[in-house]
Specification:
With about 160 residues, the chain is mainly beta. The protein is built from one helix and eleven strands; from the N terminus they run H-E-E-E-E-E-E-E-E-E-E-E. The strands form three sheets. Strands 1-9-6-5-4 form a five-stranded mixed β-sheet, with no helix packed on it. It is globular and about 65 Å long.
Length: about 160
């Protein structure tokens, strides 16, 4: 029985099921320009939203909600999540895809780029989009370890 318990813990550690029951909360502010001064005038320029969309539930286990948007600030483009929440899991990454119909098959994402590890499964967060990626208007939360789609938002 000790061996069985040990094997059970090894399996839980490998598959990281415990991550489904944890929350990682992030609260990043909008990227903003440094205030510019011109004759004692202070000017704050708000980022411009290009496209936005809402995260959807993929199935009964993999659920997402909140808004994804692509914004421009000071010539840089960012993917921003607001009021974001997704089922937590192991090895979650943020992708931008050209696909309007993502599924649990990586090929369904068509052309995509990785913006890195998901910072948190709850809260507002920003991901800088490298040049020259334009037209990648679907935000995807993807588990790389198991090739599973957790949620996505088609932005228009």
């Amino acid at each position: 029985s000790v061996v069985l318990v040990g094997l059970l813990f090894l399996e839980i550690f490998y598959f990281r099921f415990h991550t489904y029951f944890q929350e990682t909360i992030v609260n990043e502010t909008l990227p903003v320009l440094s205030p510019k001064t011109d004759s004692d005038k202070v000017e704050n320029i708000e980022p411009q939203t290009i496209v936005n969309g809402s995260f959807v539930e993929v199935d009964a286990v993999h659920k997402g909600s909140g808004v994804a948007k692509i914004i421009i600030q000071d010539g840089k483009r960012y993917l921003r999540f607001e009021n974001f929440q997704v089922t937590n899991g192991p090895d979650l990454y943020v992708y931008l895809s050209e696909s309007k119909t993502p599924t649990n098959k990586i090929k369904s994402l068509d052309k995509y780029i990785s913006l890195g590890l998901l910072k948190g499964n709850v809260g507002d967060q920003n991901y800088e989009i490298p040049e020259p990626f334009r037209g990648y208007d679907t935000a995807v939360i993807w588990c790389q370890k198991f090739g599973v789609l957790f949620s996505y938002a088609i932005m228009e």
